[in-house]
Amino acid sequence: MPVIRPTPAPLNSGDLGLDFPALGYNYINNLRKSSPAHGPERGEPGGLKNLHRWPVNRNGPKGMNLRTILVILLLGVAVALTMSLGPADHRSMAQGKMGAHMHENRPDLSTATFAGGCFWCVQADFEKVPGVVQVVSGYAGGRQANPTYEDYAEKGYVEAVQVLYDPRKVSYQELLDYFWRHVDPTDAGGQFVDRGPQYRSVIFYHDDEQNRLAEESKEKLARSGRFQKPLVTEILQFTNFYPAEDYHQDYSQKNPIRYKYYRWNSGRDQFLEKIWGHGGQKAANPGVPGKSSKPSDEELRRKLTPRQYEVTQQEGTEPAFHNEYWDNHREGIYVDIVSGEPLFSSLDKYDSDTGWPSFTRPLEPGNLVEKEDRRLFSVRTEVRSLHGDSHLGHVFKDGPPPTGLRYCMNSAALRFIPEEDLEKEGYGKYLKLFEKPK
């Protein structure tokens, strides 16, 4: 029989100045952990059922008729069934499908395996990486075969993800950089709100080269001084991996509300923001040709011209009509001068009579971050790059159709790649934008 372990005290992270109320803590643990056999903090007393301990008027509120009471009862049953849905309800679906999520063998793809706590979160993070073909949630590194959600912790497994990626588009080194920025490598007892050895962070290497790169990246991070505590993330030889049950796969997409509630209250993103700063969590930029993490300030000062540094790192503005691209009419794309991430296309560029390069829309909306800017005694919308965290310019609602937007950018924050150089620069997928109709 599974052992029901006592519920620990609510998480209170003094290091981060974060406080997770007991009710929220128990609620998210019931979202994540419906089986007591899974390990510490699984379905213990004081969990979701406490949410229903409200004072009840047994005679019903005044004016409540039988129909209303029946509707409330039916809604209550529906909610209870939804919230109680767990491993037992899906066991028959999952049996015999433990390998159903694995991609067909392709010699042009490579495999990486990482453990970073809750596999819902780790899967969602790695699925955002360009060059990653597939991410599967599962259990890795255990002693017995065929683990399930109910017993994988007892069998010595950790929650992990297996990443299938195209090494021509993203390297293993870049995946390592991305991994470090999405975990707490100093936590030996789990990850964030999830406690227990089944949640510890691990890099499982598949060959000697991955082992070498993983050890080097860990040493580099330790020397950086980013963390005050020792790094305890294990680097282990890959032995086994079993895909988790169907209902765990792509959980963030299937259950977005419950996932977002869990993730926010877990403290994961707050910790990463505190350690890496604005945009730093995503600054490891896999999939962008020739780029990895955001360079250090010293390297940026060496790489960038004084004007480029002032604009991208100090939110400066270059002179109108005296910049490189305001009147550039060649076909091609514009990328971040720091990270190389694609931002805009010449197909959306127009003459705004402002003296700065202006666009009606971004080429890759996901590579832009918009922030409220209250400087200069006005309220504007600042535009920054997602991975490089570079200041690019501002967006205004006075542009031409079809968007009505004017992305007013600084040339100093951009690098132009002409159509004829897209392939050799690693941006060949955008060539189709410039194909002439036959």
Describe this structure in words.
- The structure is a single chain.
- This protein is of the alpha+beta class.
- The chain folds into two domains: 105-282, Peptide methionine sulphoxide reductase MsrA (Peptide Methionine Sulfoxide Reductase, Chain A); 297-434, Peptide methionine sulfoxide reductase (Metal Binding Protein, Guanine Nucleotide Exchange Factor, Chain A).
- The protein is 26% helix and 19% strand.
- The protein is built from twelve helices and 19 strands.
- It is globular.
Tell me the structural class.
alpha+beta
Question: What's the story with the biggest beta sheet?
Answer: 6 strands, mixed
| Tally of helical runs | 12
CATH first level of the largest domain: Alpha Beta
| Strand order in the largest sheet | 9-8-3-5-4-10
What is the overall pLDDT average?
79
**Number of domains as seen in the coordinates:** 2
Q: What is the CATH architecture term of the largest domain?
A: 2-Layer Sandwich
The whole-angstrom Rg is 25 Å
Based on Cα principal axes, name the global outline: globular
Number of strands: 19
User: Can you tell me the CATH topology of the largest domain?
Assistant: Peptide Methionine Sulfoxide Reductase, Chain A
Strand content: 15-25%
Low-confidence stretches: 1-28, 33-64, 82-103, 279-287
Identify the notable features of this structure and list them briefly.
26% helix; alpha+beta; Peptide Methionine Sulfoxide Reductase, Chain A; 2 domains; 438 residues; Metal Binding Protein, Guanine Nucleotide Exchange Factor, Chain A
